[in-house]
Fold this sequence. Notes:
By secondary structure, this protein is mainly alpha-helical. It has helices at residues 3-18, 23-34, 40-57, 59-73, 81-87, 89-100, 102-110, 112-118, 122-145, 159-171, 179-189, 194-216, 227-254, 258-277.
Amino acid sequence: MDITHAIIIGLVQGLTEFLPISSSGHLVLMPQLLGSESSLVFDTILHVGTLVAIFICFWDDIVKIIKAFFSSLSDIPKGGLVPEIRKDDYKKLAWLLIIGNIPAGVVGILLKDYIEIAFSSVLMVGLFLLITGCLLYFSEWRASQVEERLRHGIDKLTLKDSLIIGLAQAFAILPGISRSGSTIATGLFLGLKRDLVAKYSFLLSIPAVTGAALLQIKDIGSIDMNIGALIGGFLAAAISGYFAIKVVMNLIQSKSLKVFAYYCWFIGAIAIISSIIF
Length: 278
């Protein structure tokens, strides 16, 4: 893969990681469209680029969450962990983010080989994109049924909510199922506030992406790409990811996400048709 193709794919990765239209699905489709070969290692490097974007956008929150987590550890010997978590939003958020990533970790380890097979099928990507579109469409319908004043904030976010959203993230390991789309849609179904569910979705991706990157580190030395292409793809993903986060945070508070449902249905249908014809 040359540097131009790497940058294009990096731009697509950054945008689609946070816009609810499935970055994994586009990472399967784009190399074939460009006539280039990708790899799980390169895809992981692009995901690390989007991870940088999250850190830049939510740096203050991330620092507070980390401090709150370590502070909560000192409450364990005193037997006051649960009461203290309930009183402090950031302590609560820290533990819920950890618990919410358990489903994705389990699924990623147990189904690793099957997931790699799914990444080789354009037909499956198309079908999963159709599912993502349905999730987005009906979550907006559900959100419209709940008055803004009745939606839950961080104080009402429960362990059950965290696990359900975590299961949605685990489901999004499949290419074509949008991670941000499925987690945001699930949060809207659960009646959470729109700004909270978007921020929670982005923060929830940090442990998952970091874990995937660590698992792939051993293979980086064997990747058959020049360093310029790797750096170009990484930077493109980080920059476009930053702007995509800003777009989603604005859109989810002021407008409907149904436009992304239509996009997923359109691209999904094209992928299915092309896989049948070609």
